[in-house]
Design goal:
The complex is a heterodimer.
Chain A (H helix, E strand, L loop, with lengths): L10 E2 L9 H5 L5 E2 L6 E2 L10 H5 L5 E2 L7 H9 L28
Antiparallel strand pairs in A: 1-4, 2-3
Chain B lengths: L2 H4 L26 E3 L5 H11 L12 E5 L8 E5 L2 H10 L5 E6 L6 H7 L4 H10 L2 H4 L4 E4 L9 H8 L2 E4 L7 H4 L7 H4 L5 H5 L2 H23 L1 H21 L8 H21 L6 H25 L9 H34 L4
Parallel strand pairs in B: 1-2, 3-4, 5-6
Antiparallel strand pairs in B: 2-4
Classes of the chains: A alpha+beta, B alpha/beta.
């Protein structure tokens, strides 16, 4: 109750892992940590589905339906009759994309 | 995708404010610009304006290769976005380091957001490496990217297409001096936090976006229901845009919407009390005021809180979608009941029945 973030689309196939360590390097929330044989999926519920691990895994041992967790973008898309999952209204697109609030954090 | 037509920056006359780095063909190699690590007063003013959402897409740096200090063919290469806050954080963190900075064209959007969208991505990185002729500027084949660029970049793909090895540096540019000692990042450098200061700087732009509709709503309420109702509207919005980011980790529950509903209820309590203890009007009128404060203020605050998910650093798309489907109907029903209550009970009063 009151936790909508317990499930996500992150899937890990450790049998494919070659333990290159890239997933734990790119994850900003410590979802993957280095292990002795393979990477360890330590905190699956912390995943924000940014997709960095899957995109940088050289052997496709990770899959995730990546997207931006921005209600503004999704509601804007829904109001404009666009696909909520398309990310069309998220920040970082063409100038004039309909998302009004930039995530102005990282360097 | 390459060279001629993929240059995403705005080359159309009249639309761009800064000189554009686009070239018409592949052969023409742009020069290397010079950057320093000094953040000037003008830079700080630009950052201030960016934080207040003034000319939101206009805080751009010309894309291309920059020389910082006196780099030679063995100096490290760092990639950044063409957003002034991103570029300035990088160059100031590299004070005293001789390096090259490759600024990708992300349409003036910061690294993380642009990576999420893919504009800070494999294609733009490969294109920039080729276009800047980086392979002839440096001897080595390594480019250091901010870790938060990783959602847009596939290192095996960059390696295959450009010959350059991607090295992911720390999340924050300010950790670069420590990182560069042995090119390893501690788990601390690798993790994104959302501390008070980071939440504080997001408030101005939230306020700016909410200002106009709030002023309009408060004005209408002022004439329909008086100054207390107008103040209640302003307070509900301030709770969602100012108090919510500040108190974020202290608010109970995980969901942004439930946090917002709790905060909105707290903000509504003084108004509910004020309406309830009003001795002048008829009792049912005061009851209506109390009910309206408790039914309308919380969903307003909660909706603003829900919209803060995009500014936060930890929400998944699946989770936010769950939140939308779970809470937006609740918010709508609450607000609609409040408005209906106001119309039903307020109408006789306005019509002069009593």
């Amino acid at each position: 109750m009151f936790d909508s973030y317990r499930v996500n689309t992150l899937r890990y196939y450790p049998d494919r892992c070659i333990n290159c360590g890239m997933c734990s390097r790119v994850c900003p929330h410590g979802v993957f940590v280095p292990g002795s044989e393979t990477a360890v999926l330590a905190a699956p519920v912390s995943c924000m589905e940014c997709g960095a691990c899957a995109l940088n895994c050289p052997v496709q041992a990770i899959s995730v339906q990546s997207g931006v967790g921005c209600a503004w973008a999704m509601i804007s898309a829904a109001i404009r009759g666009k696909d909520m999952d398309s990310g069309e209204c998220s920040c970082g697109g063409e100038p004039g994309s309909c998302c009004g609030t930039a995530l102005e954090k990282p360097e | 995708m390459d060279s001629t037509q993929s240059c995403g920056c705005s080359c159309t006359p009249g639309s761009g404010s800064l000189p554009c780095g686009c070239t018409q063909g592949k052969k023409e190699t742009p020069g290397i610009s010079t950057a320093t690590s000094t953040i000037t007063l003008a830079n700080r003013f630009d950052h201030f304006l960016a934080r207040w959402g003034v000319n939101r897409m206009g805080h751009t740096v010309r894309p291309g290769l920059y020389r910082l200090g006196n780099p030679d063919a063995g100096s490290p290469v760092f990639a950044s976005a063409n957003y002034t806050l991103s570029f300035d954080a990088l160059r100031s963190a590299l004070a005293g380091v001789d390096a090259y900075i490759l600024v990708l064209n992300t349409n003036g959007i910061n690294v993380w957001c642009a990576a999420g969208k893919g504009t800070f991505g494999t294609a733009e990185l490969v294109r920039s490496i080729e276009w800047s002729d980086l392979a002839h500027v440096v001897r080595h084949r390594t480019i250091i990217l901010p870790q938060l660029g990783a959602p847009g970049v596939s290192w095996p793909e960059v390696m295959r297409r450009s010959g350059f090895r991607v090295e992911y540096g720390p999340v924050r540019a300010s950790d670069l001096p420590g990182y560069l000692k042995n090119h390893t990042a501690t788990p601390e450098m690798r993790s994104v936090r959302f501390p008070f200061a980071d939440r504080l700087v997001l408030i101005p732009v939230e306020l700016v976006h909410a200002a106009l509709p709030t002023a309009a709503g408060a004005l209408i309420l002022f004439f329909l229901a008086g100054p207390l109702a107008a103040l209640a509207a302003v307070m509900a919005v301030l709770a969602g845009t100012v108090a919510f980011p500040l108190l974020f980790p202290l608010l109970p529950t995980r969901d942004f919407s439930s946090k917002g509903l709790i905060l909105g209820t707290i903000a509504a309590l003084p108004f509910a009390g004020a309406f309830a203890s009003n001795t002048t009007g008829p009792v049912w009128m005061n009851a209506a005021g109390t009910g309206m404060a408790l039914l309308i203020m919380p969903p307003v605050t909660a909706y603003l809180a829900l919209n803060f998910t995009g500014c936060s650093t930890s929400t998944s798309r699946t989770g936010v979608k769950n939140e939308i489907f779970r809470y937006v109907p609740v918010m709508a029903v609450m607000a609609a009941s409040g408005v209906l209550l106001g119309i039903l009970l307020g109408l006789p009063g306005w019509l002069g029945v009593f």
